Amino acid sequence: MKQYFMVKIKTAVYMMFSLLIIILQTSCSDNDEPQESTGSETGYENQLAYFESFIVGVDSEGALTERRNGVPLEEFSSDPTELFIGVENTEEAREMFMNWMPDNAKIVNEGNDILFYPTGTKNDSQGEVKFMTANAEDGKTLATITFNDGASIVGVSKINFIKTTAWPDNDLSALSIGEILRKKHEGEWYDFVCIKEASNGQMGIMVAFDSYIFGPPGGKALSEMASKSEGRAVQKIVGGDNWNLHKNNFINAGYSHVFENNDDGFVWFDHWCYWVLWVSDYAIQLKTGHEEKFVNKKYKFSGMYVEYFGTIIE
Questions:
Q1: SS3 161
Q2: pLDDT tens profile 26-85
Q3: Distance between CA 126 and CA 147 in Å, rounded?
Q4: Buried-most residue among 40, 111, 203, 254 (CB within 10 A)?
Q5: How far does CA 21 lie from the centroid of its chain?
Q6: Which residues pair with residue 110 across a beta bridge?
């Protein structure tokens, strides 16, 4: 009888532990933007959504909330879904396009053109995205991006890269690099630091870090850290040879705690959860771009937050 009760107790403990694990797994705070679905149930990523997140932001209903790269220009088109970005040359346009590629992207090069075939969370085809260099009859267009065979981006029918010399010269970036803007994010106030100015159809980018260093033995749940695409975009701007400049700007804004014993700027981004155990999908090293997935270590990192801003009329 005693052995019988011991078996019952062990079984109950096991079931309670299993239930705890399930609760831990379901308590994670995901980034609410649907364009960044990781497809964790199938192991595949929504690649078109990842690509889309560099161009526009959408809400939980899939409605357009903001433009990030590309704006309509009435001077060139009456279609508000045809967008324009100013670049110096075709190489800059091509580099920007390639920076928007997800992991394991299927890419085919056809001469100077690039074909991207995104796949969904079931590894299903999502159509074709084509970067094509332009034989510009107008002498202004350097390249275009078109969406074919079912590929679609919210609020976007076509993207045109035009020469910066052809861009209407009537606005300035609302913030300069290193400038600080105190702004409310997810109900809390943060000092955001400008890392990229707004110009030529590209939104400016500013970042902030949480005042609390996440990790054992503390932590608090904030739902809107930078998404994977945002984390990578920020790293490309602030990392490498630019690191010391931006790191000093972050420290001057009051974020010295982020880089204490953390010289390379390891920060949390994407979705994560914290309840009894520490779990996070992604952490990124801002200096180098190194990423770690499903981090569960002794490190104490801050969460990173990203906001966008536009231009002002002169």
A1: strand
A2: 444 444 333 344 444 567 899 999 999 999 999 888 899 999 999 999 999 999 999 999
A3: 10
A4: 203
A5: 29
A6: 113
